[in-house]
What does this fold into?
Amino acid sequence: MPVPSTVTVIEGHDQAIRAATAAIGAAVGDAPDRAVLAMVGEQLRALAARALPWDMLRLPAGALSAVHLLGLGDRDRVALYAVADAPGTRSIPHVHHTWSVTIGVEGVEANTFFAHDGARCLARLGSQQVGPGDVAIMTEAEAHATEVVSAAPMLHLHVYGRPIHVLAPFATRVLAPLA
It folds into this structure.
């Protein structure tokens, strides 16, 4: 996933985005549980329902992936992104080493969740399709793999407990697949 180096400012919506990241940061604390992350999902749902300028956040023609950093919370504890991926785009099983909440805006992404030991997947725990209005929650301990299964590109809002650019490199967070 490409990592944005600057915040994408959305004119006329930056106040709502700053308010959302501040509210999420205040709600989550240092180690949020699934109930707190479900409340974050509702805050993301409200933000996704706004008339944001989705055209500027959609996948550019010919691109496979686009990531826009929309806002950072206090002390970089919360990072809000718009993520767009082309049909068929996949990620192999990996961990984030932080919590995450995603809401679908357009398109559908299949998430498969795994139990793991830090180096390899041990068991498939389940799956979830994330389409418009659907929320996916992951705690810091969880692992997943993704695939865009819709015929059109997907566009989702993601919020993480830490910005992507401070996480360990993706290659070091990848898990060996199930045997």
Notes: The mean pLDDT is 90.
